Amino acid sequence: MSAFHSEAAHVLGARIREARNQRSLTLEDLGALAGVHWTNIGKIERGQVHPSVETLVRLASAMDADPKVFVTGLTADMYPRPRHKLTANDLIREREERSRRRDAD
């Protein structure tokens, strides 16, 4: 597997790798400290997979880092597009419009 999961996964992985390298930790070191298999960390760092929140917190905690440093600036636009472009606000507006139309009838 060589393709990125998403732009967000690529950016997140690069940030984790940079933090690990700044601390002079090997993948094996970080894996042992975080309780995450080192091969999974490698996949995360290469952007091939996107970690769960639990894994992200484990990695950050093992490096004495706040998980927000890894995710700051990531947006939904960095992930593959959903099939729809609706937001919760769009849904609420549509429901309110339907309710107004029913009340007017």
From TrEMBL:
Residues 85-105 are annotated as: Disordered. Keywords: DNA-binding. GO terms for cellular component: cytosol. Residues 16-70 form the HTH cro/C1-type domain. PROSITE patterns: HTH_CROC1 (PS50943). Pfam families: HTH_3. It comes from the Bacteria. One of its GO terms (molecular function) is DNA-binding transcription factor activity. Residues 91-105 have a biased composition (Basic and acidic residues). InterPro entries: Cro/C1-type_HTH, Lambda_DNA-bd_dom_sf, TransReg_Diox_bact_type. This is DNA-binding transcriptional regulator, XRE-family HTH domain.
